[in-house]
Structures are given as structure tokens and as C-alpha cells.
Amino acid sequence: MIAQIELTGVNKHYGNYHALKDIDLSIEKGSFTALVGPSGCGKSTLLRSLAGLESISTGTLKIAGDVMNKVPPRKRDVAMVFQSYALYPHMTVEENLTYSLRVRGMPKTEARKAAAEVARTTGLSHLLDRYPRELSGGQRQRVAMSRAIIRHPKAFLFDEPLSNLDAALRVHMRKEIRALHDRLGATSVYVTHDQIEAMTMADRVVVMRAGIIEQQGRPLDLYDKPANKFVAGFIGSPAMNFIPAQGGQDGRSVVLDLGQPQSVDVGYPVQPGRELTVGLRPEHITLAPPDKAMLKVPVAVVESTGAATYLTTATTPELAVVINGRGGTAAGETVGLDFEPAQLHLFDVKTERRI
Amino acid sequence: MSERTHNRVMLALAILLAGIYLFPLYWMYITALKSGSEMFATPPSFWPAAPRWNTFAEVWQSRQMGRFLWNSLVIAIGATTLIAVLGVGCAYVLARYRNVWVDIGLFLVLMLQVLPASLMVTPIFVGFSQLGVLDYPRLAVVVAIAAKSMPFFVILVRATFMAVPQELEEAALVDGNSRIGAFVNIVLPLARNGILVSAILIFMQAFGEFVYSKSMIQGIELQPASVGLNSFMGPNTNEWNNIMAFATIYVTPILAVFVLLQRRIVSGLTSGALK
Ligand SMILES: Nc1ncnc2c1ncn2[C@@H]1O[C@H](COP(=O)(O)OP(=O)(O)OP(=O)(O)O)[C@@H](O)[C@H]1O
Ligand SMILES: [Mg+2]
């Protein structure tokens, strides 16, 4: 693996505020990496540090093998797409696209040729003479993308580029950006707070919280084996159910506390009496006849989108359940719920780490 | 009251108020056109019976107005240029860097704006005479006006710079420009209107400046029109038509510029709507 971007022990302080804490991150050449996390966790700070718009306090930052700690943005050869698009309002689309080339001293005719070419691939050819204010949100987004791809930078940095678009366009652009990435063979770092975007687009997902990388890995590895309770709750939609539990006396089961105790044999050793939090994804629960099911619970809310039905149980804690199709239950009824013990995620109550 | 009558009443009120405000201006123009006897008639006439256009040419000649206006122009252009060159950089820094020192700086800048020119003129006079700047009296006035009006300019232009999103600059940096390049290519063009309008306001202020010019410029051949107009009026003055002609020639160009540019000025002061 060739690392295109490499961070070792990176810290960032804003005055007293510690925004990035000991970040170690290696981004493979040609990969698509998504940075996800809740608002304020430091995603943008990390991305802006890569671009050189923020200087890191300690640690090393390498791009394509060169240490970049003190290198100004213009010499890092990265391209960035901003959430607000940051199109230059006093320049036409064409001038926006060619700006980075003209700054580098490319002759105007050559730059215009490059702009025409990029515009053709992104469907902007008929808009080259317009000003940004004369474009729709989606078109502006395309201009911002095109402006990034017109030169061939060492890395693309995206800061929530889709968050200003409506839902349908967002889904469409997800695919388009990924296709563009593959076609250009680029290295991309993509910041989002939408875990679905991260899961669907990225080769690697980096989950951050409060300036710390909680876990990084392939999307499905994060889904299957979340390293801690935070990642487990963050990845997946609707979010994972968490149930307080204890290690069973037989040393190979857990006792779930859903109002009344419910013992589940997990098939591997669990320290008897150990305090646990058990995670179970809504989509891993199935309906079963009440008399034969593992759990027998009353239903509080039923919501159906047609394709799927979302149940919320009247237990403490509540359980969310997703079933395909209509489900055929109503609020107030008692249903039986089943799940595979192997689908349970066990976390230590104190450290919240996976067991 | 219906919407329509309401609007009419408001309009009538607006016209009345405008009339009161503009009456002195109107009086200046018609007095300049009146003859000697008509000026002192009771009751006064509101329209000159036989307008005397010659007064303007006579006053221009006899009071050497060309020289006065030239001096006013030199001082105004000098002060505006100095303020624009120094003030734009200053405003930009105050717009982009936020910390305690910037806040203190802004506070001091505002404080300066509070001090009246007539209070500042004595220390400035003493200082300048020690430094020998008073040997170049118009330069001395330019520097004094710049010192006085800079805060006003800086605060207006700072607001303009703050309306330019920082992300645009950052985009330019990542696109390969230097900080200065980004400032010149991106920020300046977007702030141009605001800067221009502020500079015009400063220019008009400096064109009419009186206190510093009066106290620092002794030689009549270097005095601006404001001082010239003042020395025209003595305790026993009775050539009101000539004085008003002087005033007319002095203020009409400024008025014309203001009327021509008023749309731009108003939109410049409320600019920031980039999207
Ligand atoms: N210039 C700054 N000065 C001080 N603190 C800052 C500065 N920029 C960011 N921070 C703080 O650093 C933390 C991380 O900010 P950052 O913008 O990276 O969050 P984010 O993960 O991108 O969040 P969001 O999803 O809301 O964009 C926040 O708590 C923020 O308040
Ligand atoms: Mg952010």
C-alpha cells in the first residue's frame, strides 16, 4: 500500500481548546476515505489541516511522502470542495474553472480548452458563460466539483459537499462523485456527518468523536464489528438498540434486562455477573409467533413506509425493530421477537469497548 | 384610514420635510441670481424678477475661485488617496483577525472618531510646526484630514470586507494563490463597491473641510474654497448674492456627483448581498 496522506501524532489546539487529539491516519493512494462523526468532532478541522488552511500544533503530516506541516496551501497541490461551494461570485463559470490554472500561469487558450473538456464531462458546457448567482444549487455544486477536478491534484478534499442539496439529488450525486473518483483514479477524503453517505461511497470510513478517531476500517467491518458503543450507535440506520445486561451464571449466556430478565445463550464464554451493554441492530430482529419467540413484548408505535415497517416496543429501554414489508401488527398488540444470538454486540458498561 | 389615503398623507409629509431641508439650498440658488436691491426687498421674493447670471462670472474672476477650487481638489484628492491606501489594509486586517487586541484597536479607532477637529487642531498644529510640516501647508492639511477621517473609512470598509465570505479566500489559496494574490483577485473586486462609496464620502468630506485648512494654511494662494468662502464674509457684508454665487459654484459639483452616484452609494452602503 502506498500512503498518499499520512498523519502521525497530529494535535491541533485552538487556544485552550484541543480540537484534534493524537490523530494517526494513513490514506492509501487511490482510495476514497470518509470522515464521519457528530457535529463539532473535528472533521472539518482535520480536512482543513490537510489543505493547509489550519496549521497543526504537533505531529507530522505528509502528502505524497513530503512533510507538509509548514507548507502553504498553494504548494500542497490538493483541491477542495467546500460546503458552501465558495464559487467566486464575480467570475463566470468558465473563469471559476480556469482560475487555478491561470494562477499557475497556464496560457488562457489552453486553460479554456481544459475548462471546455471538464465541462463536457460534468454537463456544464451550456453554462460556461453564466455567473454563479444564475445557477441552481445542483449546478453550483457541479461547478465546485469541476473546479476541483480541472487540475490533477494529489488529493481531493470534500467538506460536506452534498449537504445543501435535496434528498433525491444527494443520492444521485453520491454515485456521480464516486464514479468520478474511480474514473480519475484520485485519492479522496470526504467529510460528512451522514453515515449513509460514508458507508455507501467510501472504501474506508474513519469515525471521529471529540477530536479522537474512534475507529477506522472498511464500511462493513465497522458495521459488523464496531469497536465500541459509540461507533455501534453511529453506524447503521435506524440506530442500534442498546440493552442493559449481565453475564449469566452458566458463563456462556447474557441476561437482558427489558423489564423482566431474559437469558440468551451466546455460545461463547462471558464472565458471570459482569455488567454489560448489549447492542442489537433493528434489522436483525424478526417477528415470530409469541409463544415460540425469545422475547414477548407489547408494541407502542408502528410506522410503515410500505417497503419496510418500523416498530417501537413498549419496553424499557424501547427497542426499534425493522421488518420488511407490512408486518401486519398494530400498536397495543403483543408480538414475539426473535434474533440470532450471534448478532448481539457486547460492550463493557464502563469502558464501552467491545468484548 | 384606507391604504391609499394613508400613502398620500405620508407622501405629503415627506414632501413637506424635504422642502424644509432643501429650503436653504433653494435660497442659496435664488439669492445668487438676485440683483442688489431685490436681495433686501421686504417681503422677500421667492423667484428672482430678472435673474443675473453675470454674478457667477464676476465672482469667479474677482475672488479667483479657480485657485480656491484647485486647492480644495488637491487637498481632497490627497486625503482620499492617503486614506484609501492606508485604510484598506487596515480595514482588512481588522475584518479578518479576531482577538482581544483587534477589539481594543477598534475601540481606539472609534474613540478617535469622537474627538472633534477643533479640539485636535491645536496639538496637531504644534506638532506639525515642530516637525516642519507646516512649511508644506496643504500636505499638513491632507495628513490632518487623513488622521481625522481614517476611522470612519476603516469602519465602513471593514464592514464591506466582513461581508466577503472567508471561504472564497480559502478556495483561492487552495486553488494555488498566495494570500496577497487572493486578496487582490478575490477580496478586492468583491469589496470594490463598498470601498469606492466610502472613498467618495471621504472625498466629499475633505472637499468641504474647513477647520484644519483655516488654521494651518496662512497663504491665501494655498487656501481651499471653504476658507475662501469664509473670508468673503465679514461683519459688514452685504454682497449676499456674490457670496451665494461663490457657494453655488463650490457645492454644485459635489451635489451633482452625489445625485449621479446616489443609487450606487445607497446600494454600496447596504451591500454584502453577494448571492
Ligand atoms: N477557529 C476556531 N477557533 C476555535 N475553535 C474552533 C475553531 N474552528 C473550530 N473550532 C472548534 O473545533 C471543534 C471542531 O470543529 P470542526 O469545524 O472541525 O467540527 P466538524 O466536525 O466539522 O463539525 P460540523 O459537522 O458541524 O461541521 C468545534 O468544537 C469547534 O468549536
Ligand atoms: Mg464541518
Total E-strand runs of chain B: 0
- CATH class placement of the largest domain in chain B: Mainly Alpha
Distance between the termini of chain A: 30 Å
Q: Helical residue percent of chain A? A: 10-25%
CATH topology of the largest domain in chain B: MetI-like fold
Largest interface: A-B, 24 and 19 residues
Mean pLDDT of chain B, to the nearest integer, reads: 87
Number of helices of chain B: 12
Q: What is the domain total for the residues of chain B?
A: 2
Question: What structural class is derived from the secondary structure elements of chain A?
Answer: alpha+beta
How many runs of DSSP E, i.e. beta strands of chain A? 20
Domain ABC transmembrane type-1 (chain B): 69-261
Transmembrane segments (chain B): 9-30, 68-94, 106-128, 140-161, 182-207, 243-261
Organism (chain B): Mesorhizobium retamae
Subcellular location (chain B): Cell membrane
Describe how the helices and strands are arranged.
The complex is a heterodimer of chains A (355) and B (275).
Chain A: E1 3-14, E2 17-28, E3 32-36, H1 43-51, E4 58-63, E5 66-67, E6 78-81, H2 93-103, H3 108-122, H4 137-149, E7 155-159, H5 167-184, E8 188-192, H6 195-201, E9 204-209, E10 212-217, H7 219-224, H8 229-234, E11 241-247, E12 253-258, E13 260-265, E14 275-280, E15 286-288, E16 295-304, E17 308-313, E18 320-324, E19 334-338, E20 345-348
Parallel strand pairs in A: 3-8, 3-9, 6-7, 7-8
Antiparallel strand pairs in A: 1-2, 1-4, 4-5, 9-10, 11-12, 11-14, 12-13, 14-20, 15-19, 16-17, 16-19, 17-18
Helix pairs in contact in A: 2-3, 2-4, 3-4
Chain B: H1 3-33, H2 36-39, H3 54-62, H4 65-96, H5 100-114, H6 117-131, H7 137-162, H8 166-174, H9 179-207, H10 211-216, H11 225-232, H12 240-269
Helix pairs in contact in B: 1-12, 3-12, 4-7, 4-9, 4-11, 5-7, 7-9, 8-9, 9-12, 11-12
The structure holds adenosine-5'-triphosphate (ATP) and magnesium ion.
